[in-house]
Design a protein that fits this description.
It is found in: Cell membrane. It holds the Pfam family ABC_tran. It is a peripheral membrane protein. GO terms for molecular function: ATP binding. There is one protein chain. With about 325 residues, the chain is of the alpha/beta class. It has two domains: about 10-240, Rossmann fold, CATH 3.40.50; about 245-300, no CATH class. About 30% of the residues lie in helices and about 25% in strands. It is built from ten helices and twelve strands. It has helices at about 65-75, 95, 115-125, 130-140, 155-165, 185-200, 210-215, 235-240, 275-290, 305-310; strands at about 25-35, 40-50, 55-60, 80-85, 100-105, 170-175, 205, 220-225, 230-235, 245-250, 270-275, 295-300. It has a six-stranded mixed beta sheet, with helices on both faces. Helix 3 packs across helix 4 (about 130-140). The longest helix is centred in the middle third of the chain and has 16 residues, at about 185-200. Bound molecules: adenosine-5'-triphosphate. Adenosine-5'-triphosphate (ATP) binds near residues 61 and 62.
Length: about 325
């Protein structure tokens, strides 16, 4: 997929006609509940997404991410609570839809339409303006323009789904698991396009199960489990909630190090700490002073995966 979103004159967005970006958050979610019969899938969720942010809504399977996104997209009415997009109800389609691009987990294009016909249809359905050629180039489907949707591979269908979100370079783009099923080249290319859109001021809300993508790309993360946020903040905010670890093994006959932890086995130590730099320096100073070689020494910061794995033990936050 080539990055072909640099020619911003090719697409007519509503940005210019609005006389510059409006102040305030693009998305405001307040005490959102989503019920399916007796089952509450989203429980009192509150968050805001600021203009130009890339916000990743992460969580365990069934956490309620898609249910919350569907309300923001205007596809589902909240059971209670309020959601505002550009200060308006997301069900106010005439006001919101031209400014919001959505990539669903499955967009369901008609199987017998060609790729070019499908992309043209996006323009008619969303009210956004763009050219089919530009969008096909952006999602690297130019060579498939005359191919019927049913003949596309899984990854190609996913790129056609992505076209629905980037058509017209909208101000707000919602991507529900955008890179699932894409090979590494297509993933990198998709992120190039997203970065290009961000440079032009688009706001992105994303769900993904690829934590390294969220770790690299997101300004802020909302981590959901069983309908609520367990953590919300930057990657650093989230990883700070768990200790980092220092591991090493001591050679036989070494004096005992000044640590509040005993070796797990065979003089192999694992030290958990919220003060990685301070503890590591203390250990290295001790090893230096005592002429000790720390075998297999490693110091690992907390990763988003670790926070995710500990999600069951994290306190519930609305
Ligand atoms: N139409 C529905 N009727 C009844 N229950 C539903 C419906 N849609 C979703 N649910 C339930 O609501 C919960 C949240 O589902 P949702 O799809 O929002 O989760 P998710 O975080 O997007 O999950 P995943 O990561 O697995 O896609 C799940 O327990 C799911 O079974």
């Amino acid at each position: 997929m080539e990055h072909q979103l640099t020619d911003r004159t090719a697409a007519s967005t509503t940005r210019g006609s609005l006389g510059g970006p409006a102040p305030g958050p693009v998305v405001e979610v307040e005490a959102l509940n989503v019920d399916y019969g007796d089952f509450r899938a989203v429980k009192g969720l509150s968050f805001q997404v600021q203009r130009g942010e890339l916000y990743a809504l992460l969580g365990t399977n069934g956490a309620g991410k898609t249910s919350a996104l569907e309300v923001i997209e205007g596809h589902r009415t909240p059971s209670s609570g309020t959601v505002r997009v550009f200060g308006k109800s997301p069900t106010d389609r005439a006001a919101v839809r031209p400014r919001m691009g959505i990539m669903l987990q499955e967009s369901g294009f008609a199987a017998d339409l060609t790729v070019a016909e499908s992309v043209r249809l996006i323009g008619r359905l969303t009210g956004r303006s763009d050219t089919v050629e530009r969008v096909l180039g952006a999602v690297d489907l130019t060579r498939k323009a005359d191919t019927r949707v049913e003949q596309l591979s899984g990854g190609e269908k996913r790129r056609l789904d992505f076209a629905t979100a980037v058509y017209g370079q909208p101000e707000l783009i919602i991507l529900d698991e955008p890179t699932t099923g894409l090979d590494i080249q297509s993933r990198d290319a998709l992120w190039d396009v997203v970065e290009g859109l961000r440079q032009d001021g688009s706001t992105i809300i994303l769900t993904t199960h690829y934590l390294e993508e969220a770790q690299q790309r997101a300004d802020r993360i909302g981590l959901m489990h069983q309908g609520t946020f367990r953590h919300q903040g930057t990657v650093a905010d989230l990883t700070r909630t768990l200790p980092a670890s220092i591991r090493f093994t001591l050679p036989p006959g070494t004096p005992t190090p000044p640590l509040a932890t005993a070796p797990a086995h065979d003089a192999a130590y694992q030290l958990e700490t919220y003060q990685l730099q301070r503890e590591l320096k203390r250990l290295l100073d001790w090893a230096d002073t005592n002429g000790v070689e720390l075998l297999d020494l490693s110091a690992a910061p907390t990763r988003l995966d670790d926070v995710f794995r500990a999600i069951d033990t994290a306190p519930v936050r609305s």
